[in-house]
Amino acid sequence: MKIIKFLILILILNCGKNEKIYPAVGVIYELITEKREMIVHHDEIPGFMMAMTMTLKVDQSVKMENWQRGDSISFDIVINGNNGFIRSLDYRGKVNIPESIDDFWKDEDSPIKVGEFISDATFLDLDSNEVSLSKNDGKYRFISFVFSRCPMPNMCPALMMKYRYLANELESNENLEFITISFDYIYDNPSTLIKHYGSIVEPFSNWNVWSSFGHASDMITFGHYSQFAFWGVEENNIGHSMRSLLISPDLKLIQAWDGLDWKAVNIKKDIETFLQLM
Q: Percentage of the chain surpassing pLDDT 70?
C-alpha cells in the first residue's frame, strides 16, 4: 500500500512537468461549447507565434458558460507533448466585434457543393515547378491546408501526422494522391516548406506538399470555392479553418470533411469506400 501511495505521489508531482506555458491576451470571437473550443484572436506571443485568430481547445478547469463572444481575456496557452489547450482565463473587458461583411463574391460565385466541379488552380511543388489540380495523371486527390508557422501541435502538425498515416496505409493505391497545400502565399515558398515538411513527405511517393507562393489569386479562389476559410496572410495576422477534400480526376468534389476531430482510420475507410464506388 505504501508503494502504491508513493507511486501516486510521484505521478502527481510529475504531472505538468513537461508543460510549456505561454501567457497571452486576446478576444473571444466564438464559443463552440459542445467541443469545448473557443475561436480567439490573440496578440503576438513573442518567441512562440504571431498574432492569429484560431480555434483553441479549452481545459476542463474553465467554465464555458462564464464566457461570451467579445470578452477580452488574458489566458495561458499550454503545450504538453502533442496536446495544446488554454486555461487560466481572466476577464479584461468587452470588445465590440462587428459582423463580417464580404461582398467580394457575387451570388453566382458561391462555393461548390459535393458533386459539383472545382475550377483549376495552379501552385508550386517543392522543386518550384508549377503544378495544377487538372494535371493529375487520372488520380483522385485528398487535399488539406496548412501553414508552416502554425505552432499548435493539435492543429497543422496533427494534420500532418494524420496524413502520414493515410499516405502509408493507402500507398498501394496507385489511383490516389495526397496533397497538402500551404495557404500562406507570402511566407511559405518551396524552400521554406522543404525545411518544415521535406523530411516528412520524402518517404512517400503518394504525398506531395504544394506552395501557394506567388499564386495568391489561385489560393484565394480555390479556398473560396472549396469552402476553406483563411485570412490575414498579408497582415501577418493569420487565421484559418480546417477542411479536407476528396477530388476526382475531373475535379469533381466527392466529399469534404470539416475540422480536425476526424480519425485517420475512419477517413481511410471513407476514401476506400468512395473509390470502390467510382
A: 89
pLDDT in tens, 220-272: 999 999 989 888 898 888 888 899 999 999 999 999 998 888 899 999 999 99
User: How far is residue 205 from each of residues 64, 121, 123, measured CA to CA in Å?
Assistant: 44, 22, 19
* Predicted confidence (pLDDT) per residue in 57-89, tens digit: 899 999 999 999 999 999 999 988 778 899 999
Query: CA-CA distances (angstroms) from residue 173 to 142, 143, 262, 264, 276?
Result: 13, 16, 21, 16, 11
| CATH value of 18-94 in 1.10.10.60, 2.40.50.320, 2.120.10.80, 3.40.630.10 | 2.40.50.320
Specify the pTM: 0.75
Q: Could you give the 3-state DSSP secondary structure of residue 105?
A: coil
In which order are the strands placed within the sheet that holds 52-57? Answer: 83-94, 71-80, 20-32, 37-42, 52-57, 239-240, 230-231
**CA geometry: angle 54, 59, 64, nearest 5 deg:** 80
Regarding the domain with residue range 108-277, which homologous superfamily does it belong to in the CATH classification? Glutaredoxin (3.40.30.10)
- Please state, in angstroms and as integers, the Cα–Cα distance from residue 259 to each residue in 118, 194, 240, following that order: 20, 25, 11
